[in-house]
User: Fold these one by one.
Assistant:
Number 1:
Amino acid sequence: MKYLDEFRRPEQIAALLQEIRRITRRPLRFMEVCGTHTMAIARWGLKRLLPEEIELVSGPGCPVCVTANPDIDRAIALADIPEAIIATFGDLMRVPGSLSSLNGQRARGRDIRVVYSPLDALSLAEEFPKNKVIFIAVGFETTAPTLAATIKEAYVRGLANFFALSLHKTVPPALATLLDLGEIKLDGFILPGHVSAVIGSKPYEFIPKDHGLGCVITGFEPADILQAILLLVSQANALAPRVEIQYRRGVNPAGNRIAREIMAEVFAPAPGLWRGLGMIPESGLELRDRWASFDGGRTFPVELPQAKESPGCRCGEVLRGLISPRECPLYGRLCTPEEPHGPCMVSTEGSCAAAWKEEI
Ligand code: SF4
């Protein structure tokens, strides 16, 4: 298949690995920010193929994993509203909140449904006009334009029973916070291809400029990721950090203007609460006042329980790259994909789920 097979050719992968080995002169630690990269690295066994000097750590790029417990609790509480139908993505269903999960509430009789896109939730609102359909929206810049378009479509169709709880977040402020915390020493970032297809390369320029770290916007096939690592090693060797685009077939430096415009029309930057990173200014996306009637958070104030984490779960440290999943004492014992204790094991893009995949 075009754009896939050509980035999976064994001889190309072998050549890239040989070149990485040839030019690597010292231990280097790169963070892959995106959960899809984390899964691709696990799926293709890339960590085992790389020279031992190259360490890959995962960052805060799985949208389900970074959704903090107070926000999970809010989604759960919205299910108690009379006539509510909660619509959300499957991964979010099993994430433990402070007292329960969406799955747990569904077992108790709440109407909570898995959808594959916000447009599915819009269809539910049309199908059930007497209900209040509340879409729980998690994601980054990749999916925010689709939610924005769906809210505009709800307005066009005159749907007064469609709402969104926007828990969307933006990636660059989280990277700035991670770097400002100064807890982890990195030598560069493998940056997300899909997010960057929307925002372009400019929002990352503070990373080489202020922190002296290389960045490569990267595709999702094994040869993409290895090319990105090769570029990062070259940048580190040359002491010339910059933002490079490896994923040229998906990203141009200016990003996608139309997607950014519809995001800006519907959303305003707002403080965003991140698991592991706390409240980060301007890292969330809230509905602008013009669209307030579609805002599930503003329309339905709910009482929240005292937020608490799953006992022993170290997802916050995993998301900051401070520990590997296997360093969590619960990993593989009390926390498995069948019985997850934290979101990083629940999500198909979570670091702990990816580590588990590497073992089977
Ligand atoms: Fe959280 Fe489970 Fe990962 Fe531990 S292994 S950090 S409990 S998800």
Number 2:
Amino acid sequence: MNSSIGVDLEKAANLLRAGELVAIPTETVYGLAANALQDEAVIKIYQVKNRPQFNPLILHFANYQQLQACGLDLPPSAQKLAARFSPGPLTYVIPASYSIPGIVTAGTPAVAVRFPNHPITLELLQKLEFPLAAPSANPSGFVSPTSASHVAAQLGESIPYILDGGECSVGVESTIISFLEEQPRLLRYGGITLEAIEAVIGPVSLPETGYVDNPVAPGMLARHYATRHPLQTGRLQELLPAALEQYAPSEIVSISFTELLNDIPATNQFILSPTGHLPEAARRLFAALRLADEMNISLILAAEFPEEGLGRAINDRLRRASSSASTSVNATD
Ligand code: TXA
Ligand code: MG
């Protein structure tokens, strides 16, 4: 099979109705979508991604009515967030209902739901009679796609259609917040910042330190966002001396926030936002990781970003991409 890439919503809808997979654009990253209410369709997601079946999927809805039609509801604090941030890059983990297949929730009593903010995908979801289950459209463990061509490069052989919605405007995955406990708990940093969430609902529990091994969120595990070349993250000026002892300057690539380094060629440097704008850096992060990885080099050095706003999501992805995080291998998404 070879995917075609296009903007034909009717074709996408019909393939999904027939139980096929379609890659869809969202504001965060591209998703690999299937009819969430059809087991045989959802199973294909796990097969194509080579994803462990104990790692549950996010359901995507166009609006609140569609969510309720599946017997689901958001608790009051989630509704407050939804009023402010949905559609948008925020995912709510809530109690599941009878109509949600176990293959979507990985047999757990909870389900993750979100309302993606992309015009094409919202229109598609409005046409459909069912929600879409959609993980990021990358093979399990690798960097998430932020353009149709990224999807084609990795999954083009295994899915019939990629709906092209251009480049993703947020560029990192949705923030995941769980409402299963008394106090809402953040499970994954993402496109909606911690600061913005707490401004609406007050303090939330944070991902536990070492949460990459936290079984509550099976997907948030170690080996993830893997590049072909080893990646180290930290302060570039501190990482550089050791790197230069081992490799020639031309064998090293840097990914920085604003910084231009003196010791390696300018053509080996990705500066994610020369003006120091975190949303811009987030938007460009995954494409830079892919481009860096395609170069004929030996090591990727990635800066530590300010631990605030979208910097938290960027740091989280870089830590999980770094080789030191790859020691305890379990599940990935
Ligand atoms: O931005 C996004 O969220 C993208 C786009 C396509 O919507 N999707 C995405 O899906 O990042 P995925 O599968 O790559 O990551 C979803 C994460 C996984 O780590 C999974 O373990 C977690 O959400 N998750 C899903 N259902 C869950 C549940 N019921 N409880 C806890 N974590 C859950
Ligand atoms: Mg993923």
Number 3:
Amino acid sequence: MYKIAVLPGDGTGTEQVQAGMRVLEAAQDKFGFKLDPVQYDLGGERYMRTGEVLPESVLKELKQFDAIFLGAIGHPDVKPGILEKGLLLKLRFELDLYINLRPVKLYPGVFTPVKDKGPEDIDFVVVRENTEGLYSGAGGFLRKGTPQEVAVQESVNTRFGVERCLRYAFDYCRAKRRRKKLTLCGKTNVLTYAFDLWERTFSEIGPAYPEVERDYAHVDAICMWMVKNPEWFDVIVTDNMFGDIITDLGAMIQGGMGIAAGGNLHPGRVSMFEPIGGSAPKYTGKGIINPMASICAGAMMLDFLGQTEASEKIEQAVAEICSTRLKSLNAGEMGYSTTEVSELVAERL
Ligand code: IPM
Ligand code: MN
């Protein structure tokens, strides 16, 4: 029995989690585990109604769950930053979810905008540091609103934070990947403090993982190669900001936001799983968004909880439905509604 906090959040988040839960519920009957879901109405609507983003009492409750299943955060009527910082980033920081794990995998038959590349070329995982870097909130304004205004936004990189992220990436690469190649994505030619620390730590702990081949690339070059030679990558480890950026690019080459999922992890503690796309206000309530991202996030959650077989079988069902039934992975072009897609996956399972 797993206690799951379900946070639909904003916009299409509600449709996403409904579809994801549909498949998780089908899995529990089949694989002999039970989910005990409790829903929370955090997000833009609650904020506008009550002024609350993430009450302390709710945060305390969330720590008692086995996992958190999140839809999306971001509301068109709420100033950018309030919900993102007050809810999503706050959960990542307060729960110390120091890894953001984002698989980039192209399933057979799925359209990729990258010409002449197929499933054998696009199959890697990004390990994004999730609690430091430019996301730490360090910095501030000086002389705000004047012509001499100064805005400073600092990237915080601690030896502790960098090392635990790199160790996770090495461990993951060794345990879960066949090729066992780990690429550090940085910018050592310009960010000579932050990525000096990353690179030094990378080469210091690397020898403890002799099975893992080490590689380094600058973030701009990675953007180029993710399009030109995605087959070069197996596991990419990087800081928070670069990880944010390159995983949107990754989502596009694997078929779009409709299928991109991620896990915010603290191994051994409550962790949070989500589609990586946003709340997509323009599609909200229409029943046309692709729920595969949420279904895949659910599969990642089961894997994290130790339900490996259920997780793999969901992934297989997703791959099969993508290849054989959906016309496209894009919202409104699937040939099925959001609910129908989740039914197809549940039935296949
Ligand atoms: C993501 C999102 C978030 C981020 C936003 C919504 C704060 O883009 O999960 O990638 O920047 O991390
Ligand atoms: Mn992002």
